[in-house]
Design a protein that fits this description.
This protein is of the alpha+beta class. The protein contains six helices and eight strands, in the order αββαααβββαβαββ. It has helices spanning 8-29, 52-55, 64-91, 97-103, 136-147, 157-163, and strands at residues 33-38, 41-45, 110-112, 118-123, 129-134, 153-155, 168-172, 178-183. The radius of gyration is 18 Å and the shape is globular. The model has no long low-confidence stretch (mean pLDDT 84).
């Protein structure tokens, strides 16, 4: 048991719940919407429609979809940086010992695609419903996900093409996707 009387697994579950809550908050404050939790995956969208007013801003030469993609990248970098800090603190034993050992092994990675997403509510039998998402962007995300290691952000080729003029360091991968190293692009969030 930990100092608070929880088992290590109870403490870890509580910790993970808090971390997911913080990720959701980062996405929503960054202008995105979390649309689904699938296992240990958080699926978020940054809708291009939200960026149409910024698209017309004279300071930007990017489409609304490119601005939404750039914002998704910015939020993803913030999330992976934050998670890296959490893991570093855990490695230095800033949490209760049993939890520190488990948290130090945790990490996230992010895969970003850009394009159309289709959402469907399916079911209705016995009052059970499921929200499914699909579309070309989901195929991009699945492919980019294979390229992202712990603490990394991978961009699909299509997402990269939209934002390639934005200030960032990246590495082209054999898959055609890109691994993001740093991102210094626009940070305006639609109202």
């Amino acid at each position: 048991r930990t100092v608070t009387g929880e088992t290590a697994s109870e403490g870890l579950a509580k910790f993970l719940g808090n971390e997911v809550e913080k990720m959701v908050e980062m996405v929503t404050k960054g202008g995105g919407d979390v649309i689904k939790f699938a296992g240990d995956c958080v699926i978020a969208v940054f809708q291009a429609e939200d960026y149409i007013a910024l698209e017309k801003d004279l300071d930007y030469n990017y489409s609304a979809l490119a601005l939404a993609t750039g914002q998704a990248i910015r939020v993803s970098v913030e999330m992976t940086n934050r998670q890296r800090d959490v893991v570093a603190r855990a490695s230095e034993r800033h949490f209760e010992d049993e939890i520190s050992e488990l948290v130090a092994k945790l990490n996230i990675h992010v895969a970003i695609g850009a394009g159309m997403v289709y959402g469907y509510h399916v079911g209705g039998v016995a009052g059970k419903w499921e929200y499914l998402i699909d579309g070309p962007v989901m195929a991009q995300v699945r492919k980019a996900d294979e390229d992202a290691g712990a603490g990394e952000v991978a961009l699909s080729f299509e997402a990269h093409e939209l934002v390639k003029g934005i200030d960032m360091r990246k590495k082209k991968l054999p898959s055609g996707n890109y691994l993001l190293m740093t991102y210094l692009g626009p940070t305006k969030v639609p109202k």
